[in-house]
Amino acid sequence: MAGLQLDISENSLNVYKALANPVRLKMIQILSHDKLNVKDLANRVGLSNTITLRHLQILADADIITFEKQGHSKVSRLKVDNISVRFPERIYPSFDVYETDIPVGHYTAYSVEPSCGLAGKTAYIGKVDNPTYFMDPQRMEAGMIWYSKGFVEYQAPNYLQKNDHLEMLDLSMELGSEFPFSNNVWPSDITFYINDVEIGTWTSPGDFSDTRGKYTPAWVPDNVNQYGIQKILRITDHGSYLDGQPFTNVSLGDLDTSKTTFKIRFAIKPDAENSGGCTIFGKGFGNYDQDINLKLFYS
């Protein structure tokens, strides 16, 4: 199962409404242990089949459960094992910020192995599973890239001036694993580097296609990568954090910020315990309509 990430906007309102009901909360608790058909679940909650199905449809519309065939019956299955809520960011409001959005096709270095490929708004870019096309000029139009082994590296301008003091660095992106077609349970250790310094490794739980990505173009087949998980890497003077949780001891002092650019690398290390590839979703793909986003907070 995967996690469901919400924000404070109308886009997440159907999930909040789905959870704001004691019957549906009880159904979630029951389905966390068993897949059940409508009749069996109705008996467990003490409601008619019709009313039970209405509640299940609300949960399905919110992407909390899904329906699947089991023999001749249609059963309900829980899709998520955690739900997180991201509040509007209000970090160090006294600091100024330089912000750069980097399209996922604008990498400046790479070394990848199949399965790999690039997808644009209307079609694949070049031939799938052929690393040669990672240097195709049309790569600049890519909204999603994927590779099983290796790395891609980006550069963002370092706008810090002589008298600017870097207080915090934020890197936001939507990532998933990479499996031929897809596999919702396919862990992969994705390692982050900034300015050639290894920041840390996050294990992606899978390569998701259980439901279509909110922004993924209609031409993309249902059975391939649809969406990832938004990750926010934050580096401060006292260490790094991933999604607000302590990550590693790497701090701003470990980074060389004197160069004209910031280098950002996403890698599957040769000795990774879970070598399950990497998919990077950009604007117009996945569940977050964003490119790779770098913020430099300074005073």
UniProtKB/TrEMBL annotation:
SMART domains named among the record's database cross-references: HTH_ARSR
Transmembrane feature ranges: none
Domain of life from the UniProt record: Bacteria
Location of the HTH arsR-type domain: 4-98
Entry-linked InterPro entries: ArsR-like_HTH, HTH_ArsR_DNA-bd_dom, HTH_MetalResp_TranReg, WH-like_DNA-bd_sf, WH_DNA-bd_sf
GO molecular function: DNA binding; DNA-binding transcription factor activity
Source organism (scientific name): Secundilactobacillus kimchicus JCM 15530
Pfam families: HTH_5 (PF01022)
Record-given protein name: ArsR family transcriptional regulator
Keywords: DNA-binding, Transcription, Transcription regulation
